Amino acid sequence: MDVSALQLFTSTTVSELAVKVLAAIAFCIVGRWLIGRVIAVMQAAMNRNNVDPTLTKYLGSIIAVTLNIALVLGILGYFGSTAQPAGGVDVAEAIARLKVAVAAIPNVKSSPAPDVTLLDMNLVGPVPAVRPCCHTDHYRQVCFDTNEAIVPVAQEAGWPAPTPTQITKTMPA
Question: Could you tell me which of 92, 83, 88 has the C-alpha nearest to residue 153?
Answer without folding.
Answer: 83
